[in-house]
Design goal:
The chain is mainly alpha-helical. Helix content is 63%, strand content 3%. The chain contains five helices and two strands; from the N terminus they run H-E-H-H-H-H-E. It has a two-stranded antiparallel ribbon. The chain is elongated and about 55 Å long. About 5% of the residues have low confidence.
């Protein structure tokens, strides 16, 4: 018994299902391309050893230059993954979710240094992960 390939995946909408992006993918890619440059700017501020950050005794205490480079690397990865998502590349969604997860962890570790920055970015990272990992299936077969 032979299966008809087009009929078995008719309601599935994903990166291989066509050239249109879902609204969640557009949101996630846009949010990554917003969060990435902001992380790069935060990293530049850390590398410049600005007096913006201060934390007392903390288990994840790094030198501000180290935090600056961490933010720059994560920011660049967010921008690249965001371009992959918006460009509907096959690696974009997986890379985007992974980089947003790494950003979430680093922002959690950065909370004592600058909570007014880290908590909203953590929220954006969670929304990005949700948007990239959800599965959308149309029941009527129309995309």
């Amino acid at each position: 018994m032979a299966a008809v390939p087009n009929e078995s995946r008719r309601g599935h909408v994903g990166p291989d299902s066509g050239d249109r992006l879902s609204g969640a993918s557009v949101f996630a890619g846009s949010a990554m391309m917003l969060s990435g440059p902001l992380s790069i700017l935060m990293g530049a501020s850390g590398i410049a050893e600005d007096n913006l950050f201060a934390a007392s005794q903390y288990a994840y205490r790094f030198d501000l230059t180290a935090w600056g480079w961490i933010h720059i690397v994560v920011g660049l990865a967010l921008v690249i993954a965001g371009l992959g998502v918006v460009g509907n590349k096959s690696w974009g969604r997986g890379a985007g979710a992974a980089v947003a997860g790494i950003s979430l962890i680093t922002q959690f570790m950065f909370v004592p240094y600058y909570p007014l920055w880290a908590i909203p970015v953590m929220t954006i990272d969670l929304l990005i992960i949700f948007a990239l990992t959800r599965i959308h299936i149309d029941t009527d077969g129309v995309r």
